[in-house]
Amino acid sequence: MIGSIRGKIILKQERFVIVEAHGVGYKVALSPDTISKLKNAEESFFYIHTHVREDAFDLYGFTEYEELEFFEMLINVSGIGPKGALTILAVASTDTLKRAIKTSDLPYLTKISGIGKKTAEKMVIELRDKIGAVVTTGSLQGELDALEALKSLGYSQNEAREALRDLPAELDTNKKIKEALKVLGKK
Question: What is the rounded average pLDDT of the residues 85-91?
Answer without folding.
Answer: 88
